Input
Amino acid sequence: MTRVTVEPPGETRAGTRVSARTGVGPLGFDDPMEVVRWSPPAEGRPGFCRLEKRGSVVTGWAEIVVGGSGGRCRVLWREEVRVAGLPRVLDAPVALGGRLVFGRLVRALLAG
Output
């Protein structure tokens, strides 16, 4: 991801729109999403976010659960993604690529 924008500004909530620009050099696309469920973490309960992908290139959803205890954090990221124009036979390789990219992204965010 090279750029992420969030609208409207302020606290995240259902209805918040997120757009992630993904690409290298001149090749890329926007991945617009909408938060459809938002539950921030509370005492004894992890936080939860469900995003619906609203783009013409990437469709599907993502669910993110963030919790922790003892000074440690655990992130669970699940998603179902379809890429426009690609045959279903490529769903598994696309999913594997997504896991590798987003796994690296989440590890970098948690380390920082």
